[in-house]
Design a protein that fits this description.
Blueprint (H helix, E strand, L loop, with lengths): L2 H16 L3 H4 L10 H17 L8 H14 L9 H4 L1 H9 L7 H19 L8 H12 L11 H17 L11 H6 L10 H5 L24
Helix pairs in contact: 4-8, 6-9, 8-9
Length: 227
């Protein structure tokens, strides 16, 4: 993995660790139960997710490929170290935009269109078709606000939102569609919910990795079977 990749990963992982409760704090806004509209949207998203087995709740195939590529450059994977693809960040963002983040759908549509225009004008290719080094150039241009073709959202706003949502998809509870197989939690040594901690566990300064690692989905009640 290149030094820029290592630095980028180190920054995001460090930010997640600094959050202390990364596994529970980085989640879509407010519980859907507090807003009937969001509850309906979330239910629809879950149904569509179950039918498609992944992306496609909000993103079409082309946009899904682009988002997967961008988020992987923001949080690149490496041997033994999961990245955005490994953690299912695409699925997290897709479900969020069909539910709790539905108000950001136009933001993403316009941002993705501007990104495509910029990449075609600059490199004659879509973002996902570019080699990693070129993709990093584009990500850098977004972060610095130097990518042309953006009006609303601005290039920086689009990048900042994607970076935030990438972090959420990496480190939020898996119930929201990302952090697949607890990839993000394992990366930062966050144990999730545990049935019990031993005195040695509480005194240890080493990352906690012992299974089981439990997410919010375990709190759902099993359906009652009737004779």
């Amino acid at each position: 993995m290149s030094k820029p990749d290592e630095a980028r990963r180190a920054f995001l992982v460090g930010a997640a660790v600094a959050g202390a409760a990364a596994g529970t704090a980085l989640v879509p806004e407010a519980n859907a139960k507090d807003d009937p509209r969001k509850a309906r949207a979330a239910a629809a998203a879950e149904h569509a997710h179950a039918m498609t087995g992944g992306h496609g709740v909000f993103f079409n195939d082309e946009d899904a490929v682009t988002i997967a590529a961008v988020t992987e450059r923001i949080m690149p994977g490496a041997p033994g170290k999961p990245g955005a693809r490994d953690a299912g960040v695409l699925n997290y963002i897709d479900l969020a935009l069909a539910g709790a983040y539905a108000d950001q759908q136009d933001f993403y549509r316009r941002g993705l269109a501007a990104l495509e225009t910029y990449c075609q004008a600059t490199f004659k290719q879509s973002f996902a078709q570019l080699p990693a080094a070129r993709q990093d150039e584009v990500v850098g241009a977004l972060a610095e606000g130097k990518a042309t073709a953006f009006t609303w959202p601005t290039a920086q706003a689009f990048f900042n939102t994607l970076r935030t949502h990438t972090m959420e998809g990496m480190f939020a509870d898996p119930v929201y569609g990302g952090n697949k197989d607890f990839a993000g939690w394992r990366l930062v040594g966050f144990p999730g919910a545990q049935p019990a901690f031993t005195p040695a566990d509480l005194q240890s300064r080493q990352p906690f990795t012992r299974a089981p690692m439990v997410g919010l989905q375990t709190q759902a009640k099993a359906p009652v079977r009737r004779g």
